[in-house]
Amino acid sequence: MASHSFPRSSKEPWVTVTTPVGAEGGVWLLEMHNLPDNRLEPEFIKQAMLPALDFVELSWHKAVDKGTNKGGALVLTGERVKGKFFSNGLQLACLAEYPTFFKDYYYKLLARLMSYPIKTVAAINGHCYAGGLCLALACDWRICRPDRTWLSMNELLFGAPIPAGMASVLQTRLSEPVVRKVMLTAHKYTSAEALKDGLVDEVVEGTGSEETIKKALEKAVQLAPLSETGVLRAMKETLYAPALAQLAQDEQLLIGRPQQQNEDAFKALLAAEVNAKL
């Protein structure tokens, strides 16, 4: 089983890409190793995630060019040693140093997955929160373990409004009532609830991280032939055009601004109350 690590120069890989034995038909497995909880930090995205996606796509193109295989699929999963987290989302504390984080890092990653030229499957093998949930939703298919997994857009609970790009991904994948539930209640989903509301497409019968990845690889083999004609990227770009256009926009981190708006509105209303009494 061939294995490739990213960043290339790092002794401790943040991402590994393998071609699992038995997963025939041009299937690649991308594992995130940004321990302890696979936070989608700027350098993790720039130096590991995006290069890994480039590597997989190049490998697929080479296989097509050689005539060895035309189909292709990618499975994206969290670390599998403990199997505790798929991804715990963004690391907000470090984003002040990266003013173009959304447009040049995180949104580039989401857009890359949403328009990827081969089929993509998220093997949600652990907890999946906020930006991590949007990452899973950017994939074509989502398979979730039944145990030890919570899924939530929990920004409402810690005062971080969900940016328009992330909201566009939610609106693309989920029904309007579910989007309202996800964004405006910060509901903490079990795997069964996530299946019912369409956050995931399948819940595996067997428990544990490995069962989830195994099922995702089987699904990837089934989906791989759909990449053979080479039109998947064009199809996705048409289908997801509104979300992709929003992900191309430059957005700034808004933590604190809504609270300031509330304070300004409160002052304005107090002034209006005083004027009304006069």
From TrEMBL:
GO biological process, one term: fatty acid beta-oxidation
Pfam families: ECH_1
Keyword Cytoplasm attributed: no
GO molecular function terms attached to this record: delta(3)-delta(2)-enoyl-CoA isomerase activity
Gene3D superfamilies named among the record's database cross-references: 2-enoyl-CoA Hydratase, Chain A, domain 1
UniProt keyword annotation of Protein transport present: no
GO cellular component: peroxisome
SUPFAM superfamilies: ClpP/crotonase
Keywords associated with the record: Isomerase
Alphabetized InterPro entries for the sequence: ClpP/crotonase-like_dom_sf, Enoyl-CoA_hydra/iso
Stated name of the protein: BY PROTMAP: gi|472581809|gb|EMS19524.1| enoyl-CoA hydratase/isomerase family protein [Rhodosporidium toruloides NP11] gi|647402545|emb|CDR48778.1| RHTO0S20e01200g1_1 [Rhodosporidium toruloides]
